[in-house]
Amino acid sequence: VYFMVLGVILASCLLSNWAVTHISTGNESCHPQAAPRIPSGLSLTLSLSQVVRSRLEKKGIPVHNVRLNGSAASHVLHQDSGLGYKDLDLIFGVDLKTEDVFQLVKDVVMDCLLDFLPEGVNKDKITPMTLKEAYVQKLVKVCNETDRWSLISLSNNSGKNVELKFVDSLRRQFEFSVDSFQIILDSLLLFGECSETPMAESFHPTVTGESMYGDFEEAMEHLRSRVIATRNPEEIRGGGLLKYCNLLVRGFKPKSEVDMKALQRYMCSRFFIDFSDIGEQLRKLECYLQSHFVGMESNRYDYLMTLHRVVNESTVCLMGHERRQTLNLIAMLAVRVLAEQNIIPTVTNVTCYYQPAPYVSEINFNYYVTHVQPFLPCNQSYPTWLPCN
């Protein structure tokens, strides 16, 4: 993996740790928010990473490194990219060889959360289950031949969650080149443990950045120029389809229109493999809209229309009725979004029409088909369309 040392010289793609600290200390409201009956105010910053790493090592689980991952790392590298970031995603490199280790990692994290509750809270009355229900949005464990990792996502009502990912092996670590960056925080954590002098813009350690895309300089140029590039999207869960449409709405452009058209088909195919049921598709889209457009609700309609266009153009793996069902679902969500934004005009005087099923025209079917004029003036009539009152 190509990597560069990050420092303070911007011309050499070097970055000061001050920017990393700015994100990691929650200056942009990255603190999780708890349920009303649970004391809020968890201070999940770099100190949480320090405590988790220390506790794991005391339990005999070495932590090889701690990394800031994905869009948050991209935001540190280039804050004007337009990419934004939804989560504060931290990766802990650990060995997860047995089921017991998976469970131990989870127990250690939950135990650490108790330590970050405000002073005066009676921790004896807060059970692990209560803490989990109040603060943990998602628990994921993946254990197969190529991937061994677990995820603990700490919820935040504003949309910026804190995600702790414990990775033994992970075959695919990025979706697109612009979110393929990782910043290794070990020197920063060591500074916090050993230095008595507070960190400042003129006094801070150096961290290391990497691009999982493979070429750091190329990925950085994509980030600066808002270019969409990826490879083998069929390896990504969901095909990267939803993220791809999000990038399009944010003004990113494909590196190659011709190549991206081909990749779109792989994105759609993988998405419908992972989310084959219409109910699963609905839940996935609703969750994505809720978590990725906080403060940008006005972009949801454009996003859905972009998704509708891509699915319509590039879906080749579905039966005709399945494809129409998905397109109708996306269109329905788009109408709902407009309604929530009070953009839909009054429909008191609007007449809607529907087309009867083919069997309606059969001789033995007791149904009257009337001849009506079209809604708009036209030289041609449409005898098979009925008014829906």
Automatic annotation (TrEMBL):
Belongs to the TENT family. It comes from Zosterops lateralis melanops. This is Terminal nucleotidyltransferase 5B. GO terms for molecular function: poly(A) RNA polymerase activity; RNA binding. It catalyses: RNA(n) + ATP = RNA(n)-3'-adenine ribonucleotide + diphosphate. Its EC number is 2.7.7.19. Residues 1-19 form the signal peptide. One of its GO terms (cellular component) is cytoplasm.
